[in-house]
Amino acid sequence: MTIHSGAGLKKTMFEYVIELVVPSFEDVNTEDVKAEDGNPEDVSTEKLISGNFSTVTLATYNFNPGLEVGESVWISEHWGTWEDEPFNFEAVVTRYRKEIIPCRKSESKPDVFRIVIFLEAVEKDNLARMREIIRRLNSSNK
């Protein structure tokens, strides 16, 4: 434990990051996945791989946005190119993650205390389209 005198204290930056969780899916042919009535199942809700997901940063704030677990928020977001339609959907805060990001002694940057707020879409209809855009954007950034 390091104890600093008042004159030597480094500044700390607080950061609140809003992340949307976009689950990954098994690569299955929807024609091969049939519901009991013979119709193809909705792969976006039925074939999620547990624990395998991407996150998309929606916003970063230097103040507490006051979101609580279980609270719903409305998201209006556009990803991809001008050809891609914007997303408008409701999401729910599912959890928080607290991170401490210390700077090195040689750096003049402040330490960062970050709270990541995770959201999940209420309606799963757009998840397949979100996943495809994320995959396309990630491959173009490589």
Description:
The chain is mostly beta strands. It has helices at 43-46, 127-140, and strands at residues 12-25, 48-61, 72-77, 87-101, 111-121. Strands 2-1-5-4-3 form a five-stranded mixed sheet.
Descriptive keywords:
five-stranded mixed sheet, globular, disordered N terminus
Q: Measured on Cα atoms, how large is the radius of gyration?
A: 20 Å
Largest beta-sheet details = 5 strands, mixed
Give the uncertain stretches in residue-range form.
1-7, 26-49
Number of strands: 5
What sort of overall outline do the alpha carbons produce when their principal axes are compared?
A: globular
Spatial strand arrangement across the major sheet = 2-1-5-4-3
> How much helical structure, as a percent, in the residues?
10-25%
Q: What's the helix count?
A: 2
The first-to-last residue Cα distance is: 41 Å
Oligomeric composition of the shown chains: single chain
Structural class: mainly beta
Hey, roughly how much beta strand do the residues contain? 35-45%
Query: Mean pLDDT, nearest integer?
Result: 75
The H/E string reads: EHEEEEH
Provide the fold topology.
Layout: E1 12-25, H1 43-46, E2 48-61, E3 72-77, E4 87-101, E5 111-121, H2 127-140
Parallel strand pairs: 1-5
Antiparallel strand pairs: 1-2, 3-4, 4-5
Summarize the structure.
The chain contains two helices and five strands; from the N terminus they run E-H-E-E-E-E-H. With about 140 residues, the protein is mainly β.
